Amino acid sequence: MRRASTLARVVCSAGAMLLTSAAFSAEPPHSADISKRNLTPQDFPRWQRIAPDVYAYEGLHSPDKQGVIVNTVSLIVATGDGVVVVDGQGDVPQTRLMIENIRKLTPEPIKYVVIASDHTDHVGGNSAFKEAYPNVVFIGSPASQKRLAKDPNPPTMLVSEQRSLRLGAIQIEILNLGRAHTGGDLVAWLPESNVLFLGEVFLRDVFPAMRSAYPTEWLATLRKAATMNASYYIPGHGFIDEAPIMRRELDEARLALASVIDEAERLHAAGHKCESAANCPALEHANWGEYHDWALRSSQAPIAVWRVYQELEGKLPES
Ligand SMILES: [Zn+2]
């Protein structure tokens, strides 16, 4: 019963989403926390059409220790000759639900699943794709293949730099713009609609999450994404408003990352210690300014400081 009512809500909210976004277009809250938009888990999943045959689908990330919940975004492209999904959801039930919703949209099978982020919150449900479509092909970077070697569904089609997929009327460019949040980061660009799905390269209004990040390379990757002048930038977490807002928010994410790196560098230069995320006295001296209130700050700030220290000290893993 619960599942049936959730599905009904998704179908209803598909049309209503753009209105919801418009209501926030003046000054959207600077937080990916779903409660800051008066949403509850029952409002998910939801999706919106962002170009002809292209949809951004929002499932839910599990709550952090403070109970803050953000969304997890998947891109769905119905090409006319099969569906391409870029980034799945974090568990099998949510991914099954996404597949059920895709089936309401189109009878086409899911042919490809692109692993833009190899983190569990984006690949944890991937066996549901295989269960529904045994011939589905998983695409990912060599780094993601390595990291998912023990996963039941590692990528088998690899993208080191760039790969074009043309299905039906739609071309999809899978690109490596540089290392960012996972180290195996890929993005998907749709040249016809000029939509750029950045996955976890773009965390909108989420405190920079750096568990496996390459901090200064991530900055360079975000700069590169901005120079592509996409008409619509889609994040891996965070809300999706109208295109001009998303362009501005991409800059905001880059400024936030630069600011967090600067602050961690300042702490390092001042001699404050950070041995690990769990043992990081430097944090007591940190000033995050306007980013203090960004979603997941309390869990992500110690990780960010530690990871920047690792980079400064030449201790980041090669891959
Ligand atoms: Zn994630």
TrEMBL record:
<comment type="similarity">
    <text>Belongs to the metallo-beta-lactamase superfamily. Class-B beta-lactamase family.</text>
</comment>
<dbReference type="InterPro" id="IPR036866">
    <property type="entry name" value="RibonucZ/Hydroxyglut_hydro"/>
</dbReference>
<dbReference type="Pfam" id="PF00753">
    <property type="entry name" value="Lactamase_B"/>
</dbReference>
<feature type="signal peptide">
    <location>
        <begin position="1"/>
        <end position="25"/>
    </location>
</feature>
<keyword id="KW-0732">Signal</keyword>
<protein>
    <submittedName>
        <fullName>MBL fold metallo-hydrolase</fullName>
    </submittedName>
</protein>
<dbReference type="InterPro" id="IPR050855">
    <property type="entry name" value="NDM-1-like"/>
</dbReference>
<feature type="domain" description="Metallo-beta-lactamase">
    <location>
        <begin position="71"/>
        <end position="237"/>
    </location>
</feature>
<dbReference type="InterPro" id="IPR001279">
    <property type="entry name" value="Metallo-B-lactamas"/>
</dbReference>
